[in-house]
Here is the input.
Amino acid sequence: MQLDERKVKILQAIIRNYLETGEPVGSRTISKYTDLNLSSATIRNEMSDLEEMGYILQPHTSAGRIPSDKGYRLYVDTMMEERVREVDEMRELVLQKADKVDLVLKQVAKLLAANTNYAAMISSPQYHHNKVKFIQLSKVDINQIVAVVVVEGNIIKNKIIDVEEEMDDQTLLKLNILLNTNLNGLSLENINLGIITMMKEQAGIHSDVVGSVIDAVAEAIRSDEDLQIYTSGATNIFKYPELSDHEKASELINVLEEKQQLAGLVNETLANGEQNRGIQVYIGNETPVQTMKDCSVVTATYELEEGMQGTIGIIGPKRMDYDKVVSTLKQLMEQLDSLYKKT
Amino acid sequence: MQLDERKVKILQAIIRNYLETGEPVGSRTISKYTDLNLSSATIRNEMSDLEEMGYILQPHTSAGRIPSDKGYRLYVDTMMEERVREVDEMRELVLQKADKVDLVLKQVAKLLAANTNYAAMISSPQYHHNKVKFIQLSKVDINQIVAVVVVEGNIIKNKIIDVEEEMDDQTLLKLNILLNTNLNGLSLENINLGIITMMKEQAGIHSDVVGSVIDAVAEAIRSDEDLQIYTSGATNIFKYPELSDHEKASELINVLEEKQQLAGLVNETLANGEQNRGIQVYIGNETPVQTMKDCSVVTATYELEEGMQGTIGIIGPKRMDYDKVVSTLKQLMEQLDSLYKKT
DNA sequence: TATTAGCACTCACCCTTTAAGAGTGCTAAT
DNA sequence: ATTAGCACTCTTAAAGGGTGAGTGCTAATA
Here is the structure.
């Protein structure tokens, strides 16, 4: 079956309507809502097709239709309309204070939550593109060695590695050379499985040590020890009945409170942001955080200084006002940019 | 009417039962639950008395009774039984990591929440007993002066004060002397209303300036700019039906997320803790944070080093298991003490 | 051939009724 | 002073019934 123009129009109308009301939308509504001048019966036929194609679905027989994840995806990819409007309030608020970064971040989160009526999160900026500068393995004990990893920005990471058998100095030297020659100058994205396996092969029986070191490197580069995440407006989810039964609300709020899982979202976003510059939309099951499979998550990467990136996220129901959220985020990014890059 | 021993026993039985079940408890239950060997009819009479005295109340005619705030208060003050038990798990976990304070605090919060099934909060330790070392007023403009307050620990606080009329140097000097002679060496608790009014009198027409300076002093001593508050287990409140309707749950979780209001709780606790060393129980309306008027809050003051105090709080329903919470908190305090004071 | 009117049917939702159960207060008996 | 007994109240859950929104299908229409 073909998705002709009329079907698109109808689908769009259905989604628009559903975004507003949150109620399944019926054929009669569409018949009136659009300028297609078609009877409800015709619409019904078209809707039946759209359902077959997987863009919409019926919560139960004899209810209206609601968009499916696929439907939302199509909408977000092709039918969204940029909206520019009352972001003035934001301008004021964001510009307010700039002396302490964390205060600004808190404000941004609060602002976003209040502005969008969804939950908002923001991660503190992290050095991300950092490259490995130096690696040093040293023996501290018969069966323990310490790996010291220094990355650009002089972040230092130590990791104790247990080894089964004692390692003589020469082997250690060899490993040191191996590690430094192969990893120096590389950033997290550049250390791929190819390099890793190659190194492990060269290390022979000490391949597990290499593995541990690489873990340490990853940690050092990510340095998410002092990854701060601020949230705001978690309780906004109560505004959407489809999320506010105890079970779901509880899970969601928990994720937002404990922050643990949000770190995953941050990393995912930063990793993806690499290619896919800017704003990303995760609908339902697309989300990297499984707890949010009934939600949509819109994330954006911001950058305070070169290589100093953080993530902003909006968490809301699938019937989120994508247009608004996306344009709000874009505006906000500009704000942040002008706030820090100009100076 | 008199609260004789039998009434106390019955009240205790009612409360105990209600703490467990959360359901209004009827006369027949008590008749069986206690070893008083009284018929339900007798209990009914006694309950009627207890209600008249305000210790219990009926949600509606022909329902059982539930404890009133007054009833809980009596219970907490006189009938609680210390409980010592499986806090072993805690010992392990708390001792785990000690290199970064904030990690420990996060863990403590998490642990408490998981252990008690209530929401937990913990504030980062603050210098609190600090005394004023020095105060200096200087004119910066025709109608602006700046107050510089230095307190022990060399925390410095500035505050701009607007004045209606220009102040000549001599007046300023007088005020400086007045402030320094009266406030130096005093800590927050020692600056009482008596001193304040006395000073304001002496300052004459400039009493409002004195007031502003005292505000600045209070801020400096509290220094809650970098007051961190960690929460955990906010979603535990969903376990208690009396708190988990949307409205209440939303408000509560919001307070826990935004932290703002919790700072008030911290300050209150620290201030009270002065006299009332140790653990405090706020039942219902007794709470310093109005949003929690349907909850009970149990707080404790902990001290890492001399004068370095923080607050731990447990937020739960009024029918909280006070015995458990109090003894858990006590145990925890010991843990924290031994963790940091021994070294 | 595409569109539409018409109609029977489904299902969630709301309202009312009904019955059961828990608990009380009062009175009279012990 | 205590208790048995009973009428009464009030909540809660279940059951029934009506309503309305919406569908799918069929037959008529442009």
Observations:
- The longest strand of chain B covers residues 295-305.
- The interface with chain A takes residues 110, 231-232, 234-235, 238, 244, 246, 249-251, 253-254, 256-258 of chain B (CB under 8 Å).
